[in-house]
Amino acid sequence: ERALSTVPVTPPPLTTSQPQVGPGRDTIIEIEARVRFDDLLLSLPARENGRQLIEEHIRADVLRAHAYEPRHRILLSGPPGNGKTSFAEAIAEALGLPFFVVRYDALIGSYLGETNARLRKLFDYVRTQPSVLFFDEFDAIGKERGDTHETGEIKRVVSFLLMQLDQLPPYVIVVAATNHAELLDRAVWRRFQMRLAFPQPDRKLLEVFLDRVISGWPETPRMTVQKLATRLGEQATFAPKFDRLAQALARDPGGLELRADPAALAPERLLVFEVRGSVNNFAAAVQRVPGLELIDEEELGSDDDKEPVAYLLVPDARALAELLSLWRRWNADQLQFGETPWRGVFELLRDLRPWGPQDRVQRIDASFLAEEIEERGEDELVPLEIELIYRASEVQAQAREDEVRAAVTARGGQIISRAR
């Protein structure tokens, strides 16, 4: 305690104060806006639209002289931590307006009609002065009214909220943020004149951010800003997917095997790795992990990337555990001798997903077959290849092949040849 008492304490940058006395004041807190818009790292659309919004309100008199009003209802959507709250605060700072943040704990009531009454007081209060009103997690009160799981009270709250938004004067800027835009009522979407997406930052934005942070460090890190930005971007994208695999392993450590029935495949039993470009030594990397099996490898074409390669892997419990360990060691930059081929795989990883219907029949294959069938006569056979991925006993494999043969024959087809 004596040591702590000697340490100077700097107040946090966001200090709160109570708004002026009046009905509705207990449902909001006023935050001193200190975030500058020019300091934000935003996507180009968010930055341009933010500047336009500020300019519209600075030059509101010019707009009104031409019978226009500045836009003042803004919806921000995207994952948490990407700058939605800072964007709203920066708008208030740029315009020199009070920044009010809605307190849901004081707004949402437990009795019938209580929430609407508090909403009315809230909006009556903010109408008394130019301000920025910020609703975080807006889906808490703006949910889809057609949802059968929602109560009648929630639907009444949404309807009342829509009416209040319509009646707000242009000098009150209402900014709503949500991490779950799909939950919002469609009519709520239409009430907002500006809708901005806040996706995960791309590598360039991450590089700028990291450069700002690292420039203040006393020592230069071992990893370059560019490499660190790439690593962080991959971590944000793929960490949840690897975490899901870890949970599956903990839940069912003994049952991670390819089943006979493809429809019964658990997602974790067959994985698809997509990478940017070809990884020549990927097959060798797979062979070094006991139990990990490379089933197929193919090049896929697209407009954006002409050489993505998909790798299908069948892990058992031991192999999956090793795969997770490799991922964690790569993130910690601790891959050991003989594991370096995995560095190329993880660095070029574009997608990791469970094997699903999109991997059984590619769209281009379906279109090709449709064209082939149309070009041929009614009695003319269309040659096609059926590839079965089956890892089980010889007796079971033969039984399944007989089922396929019977199904093809029953539909007027023929098995021309087979190979194993």
UniProtKB/TrEMBL annotation:
<keyword id="KW-0067">ATP-binding</keyword>
<comment type="similarity">
    <text>Belongs to the AAA ATPase family.</text>
</comment>
<dbReference type="GO" id="GO:0008540">
    <property type="term" value="C:proteasome regulatory particle, base subcomplex"/>
</dbReference>
<dbReference type="InterPro" id="IPR003960">
    <property type="entry name" value="ATPase_AAA_CS"/>
</dbReference>
<dbReference type="GO" id="GO:0016887">
    <property type="term" value="F:ATP hydrolysis activity"/>
</dbReference>
<dbReference type="InterPro" id="IPR003593">
    <property type="entry name" value="AAA+_ATPase"/>
</dbReference>
<feature type="region of interest" description="Disordered">
    <location>
        <begin position="1"/>
        <end position="23"/>
    </location>
</feature>
<dbReference type="InterPro" id="IPR027417">
    <property type="entry name" value="P-loop_NTPase"/>
</dbReference>
<dbReference type="Pfam" id="PF00004">
    <property type="entry name" value="AAA"/>
</dbReference>
<dbReference type="InterPro" id="IPR003959">
    <property type="entry name" value="ATPase_AAA_core"/>
</dbReference>
<keyword id="KW-0547">Nucleotide-binding</keyword>
<protein>
    <recommendedName>
        <fullName>AAA+ ATPase domain-containing protein</fullName>
    </recommendedName>
</protein>
<feature type="domain" description="AAA+ ATPase">
    <location>
        <begin position="70"/>
        <end position="202"/>
    </location>
</feature>
<dbReference type="GO" id="GO:0005524">
    <property type="term" value="F:ATP binding"/>
</dbReference>
<dbReference type="InterPro" id="IPR050221">
    <property type="entry name" value="26S_Proteasome_ATPase"/>
</dbReference>
